[in-house]
Amino acid sequence: MGDLAVLLDGNNLSRLLVGLWVVARVALSSMALSVIIGLPVGMVMTLKNPICRAACRVYLEIVRVMPQLVLLFLVYFGLTHASGVNLSGETTAVIVFMFWGAAEIGDLTRGALSSIPSHQYESGQALGLSKNSLYLSVILPQAIRRLVPPAVNLATRMIKTTSLIALIGVADVMKVAQQIIEGNRYLAPKAALWVYGGVFVLYFLVCWPVSKLAQMLERRRAADV
Domain of 157? Predict the structure, then answer.
């Protein structure tokens, strides 16, 4: 069997596509939860309460300092055993990436809210809007428009970082690729180049459109400023 033929042999290609769907499922679930949690976290970061701001800063620094792989191992091998709760690898991945993503979205939200000119607040108050109405009708819509491009970039990073979940046993595209290579190590000992090359192409096909979308949104936002 030729090394390149390993990709097309049997159901290897379909297995890789199933693994890619696992990647997409983890990334989409994590990103959706990150946005839901990160938006209020970002709003809390803008409060003048020193305790709230300090707690959010500690959370953000923990996420930025701690590698995602360590967090995956900490939750999957440490927390689950200590608590007695049996979490699947995929659920663990969603929890860890949500923990990371919510902090990043929170910081992006804080930056977006802080970038709103002060006269927007003053104009809303002059019109007699309540604080809640001012945030919901004036401030948040502008902040979300500024938030979308970097949030899409974060989604790209999250998709790529999912390659780590193979190390906790999740049958993602990387794990499937390793299984294919191991299963053909005698018949096609040099197949790793083609199998990982196929994985590269799959990741590229997923991440490139998302990256181009982020660039398009950034250009549109810059044109509106």
Answer: 5-224
Number of domains making up the chain: 1
**What is the residue-wise DSSP string for 136-147?**
IIIIHHHHHHHH
Distance CA 173, CA 87 (A): 20
The enclosing domain of 220 has a CATH number of: 1.10.3720.10
Distance of alpha carbon 99 from alpha carbon 5, whole angstroms: 40
Predicted model pTM:
0.85
The CB-side HSE value for 178 (13 A sphere, CA atoms) comes to 11
Per-residue pLDDT tens over the stretch 160-180: 999 999 999 888 899 999 988
pLDDT tens sequence across 138-148: 788 788 888 88
> 13 and 7 in contact (C-beta within 8 Å)?
yes
Tokens of residue 91, six digits: 């659920």
